[in-house]
Design a protein that fits this description.
The structure holds two protein chains of two kinds. By secondary structure, chain A is mostly helical. Chain A is built from eight helices and no strands. Chain B has a domain at 1-77. Classes of the chains: A mainly alpha, B mainly alpha.
Chain lengths: 176, 154
């Protein structure tokens, strides 16, 4: 049952997607690519890149594209449903029952620990992606530009990605 | 997205800034995209389960449609060297964004040497040994409980 597998896989990714959803990038590579081999590393990376350049939320954009790439709109819908299921649980359970405990030291400690680790894992993912995407001078400049636009200039993700990619396009075209 | 969510919370729920910050704290502390979680919470408070579903659909459907259209266009486009260059540039840009995300989160959450140590341990274990993220997060939660819980006395 591919539909069920896909739903459960995206539910898992949704449940582990701490840190505003960016923890999902490493999971896409470890689970969609390495474990299930539904897509190649290259295909997954392309999808992540496209998902960041269109409006909306990264998680659901990626889920849609993974489903479409696997071959049907049905897969896309199932993947999206999986990745948004946790939000429904949060709206009901977390907002009502966990909220009073949010200031408790124990829960704060756990969340701090998880967040600290998430950052490390996202850094590691950045390093891994760098090995396959930053291959020469122009691509290095492109990556740096995106970092500067996004981090130092505080542009939003889509604007920073598209601007840097445009600059990169020109650089690669003329330098190579 | 956030200013819009705040406006809706203010108008429909009569939530003040403090109330909205609490909603955002829940949305951020739990897994998933902050925008989707916040829309689900606000929607649920406005109209129960259907409200939550409506909120989620509202923030996700536009992106899903855009992504699908772009995907279909890319499928139709012939594989030209132009497209290859564009993909190469886009991927390099994404690497910059991922590092930007990590540094942003790090500035906010890596406070003190203990959380820094947990972060670097996670980086090392994931990068070098490809340890499962589930195991790393579980371990980090336990370590956080032991070493990062603020003392009751404050």
């Amino acid at each position: 049952m591919l539909y069920l597998k896909l739903y459960l896989q995206f539910l898992k990714i949704g449940l582990l997607g701490f840190g505003g959803g960016y923890m999902m990038i490493p999971l896409f590579f470890t689970d969609i690519v390495a474990r299930h081999k539904w897509l190649s590393h290259e295909e997954m990376f392309n999808i992540i890149a496209v998902a960041q350049t269109v409006p909306g939320t990264f998680a659901t954009n990626t889920a849609t594209l993974v489903g479409l790439k696997m071959g049907s709109i049905g897969y896309g819908i199932v993947a999206v449903l999986g990745v948004i299921t946790p939000a429904l649980l949060i709206a009901y359970l977390a907002d009502r029952y966990v909220r009073p405990y949010l200031t408790r030291p124990a829960l704060q400690g756990i969340l701090k620990g998880v967040t600290a680790a998430v950052i490390g894992i996202i850094f590691a993912t950045g390093l891994r992606m760098m090995h396959s995407a930053v291959i020469d001078g122009p691509t290095m400049v492109t990556g740096l530009l995106a970092f500067i636009f996004f981090y130092a200039r505080r542009w939003n993700v889509a604007a920073a990605t598209i601007s840097a990619a445009l600059a990169g396009f020109v650089l690669i075209y003329f330098v190579r | 997205m956030l200013p819009y969510l705040e406006e809706i919370a203010r108008r429909e729920l009569g939530a003040d800034s403090n109330e909205f910050l609490q909603i955002m704290a829940i949305a951020q502390s739990f897994p998933g995209a902050m925008g989707i979680n916040a829309a689900a919470i606000i929607g649920y408070r406005m109209g129960g389960w259907m409200g939550a579903v409506a909120g989620i659909l509202g923030v996700t459907v536009p992106g899903v449609i855009c992504a699908s259209v772009l995907f279909l266009l890319l499928m139709l486009a012939a594989r030209t060297s132009w497209l290859d260059i564009a993909t190469t540039a886009l991927k390099a840009a994404v690497v910059g964004i991922v590092f930007g995300m990590a540094v942003n989160l790090g500035n906010r959450s890596w406070k003190g040497y203990r959380s820094l140590l947990i972060g670097f341990a996670a980086l090392f274990l994931f990068y070098r040994f490809q340890l499962s993220p589930v195991i790393i997060l579980l371990g980090a939660g336990v370590l956080g409980y032991i070493f990062l819980s603020p003392s009751e006395a404050g």
